[in-house]
Structure formats: C-alpha cells, structure tokens
Amino acid sequence: MSQPRIELIGKPDCHLCDDARAVIERVCADTGESFVERNILDEPELMASYAEQIPVTLVDGKQHDYWRVDEQRLRKALSRRRKLFGKR
C-alpha cells in the first residue's frame, strides 16, 4: 500500500478537527485515497509549527488548508496532482 496522500494534524477534543476528519473521510471514501492523522500533542515540532492553525491538512506533504477543510478544494487538489504526475 502506498503512503497516504493526506495528513490531518490536530489534537483530541477539538471540534474543528472532528469536522475536518469527517470531510477527509468522505473524500477518501469516494476517491480511494487514504489519510493519516497526527497529534500535535505527541510531536513537539508539529506543535511549534501549527499550534494556532489546527486542524491543518497536508496534501502530498504540502500544507493545503487549516482550521476548515473545503471539500471541493481538497478533491481538486487530489485530482490535479494525479493528472500532473500520473498517479492512480
């Protein structure tokens, strides 16, 4: 299995993180993509970088969104990257 293309950086008990996760799960279910979730409380470098922006969404290792995930924008980013690099 390949690396997940989407990363969700957040923390427990964060309602915005819950909302972002729901959008990402829906997009992944429709597109066949996968995601990984990382907790800023477990990774000091993430806390230093993103403490005021969570949840943060990365696509292919680059910051895509923060605070909220726009579903259509996420879908476009995933499809655009596939077209550019011949992925899936």
TrEMBL record:
Pfam families, per database record: Glrx-like
InterPro entries referenced in this protein's UniProt entry, alphabetically: Glutaredoxin-like (IPR008554), Thioredoxin-like_sf (IPR036249)
Origin superkingdom: Bacteria
This protein's name: Glutaredoxin family protein
Organism the protein comes from: Flexivirga alba
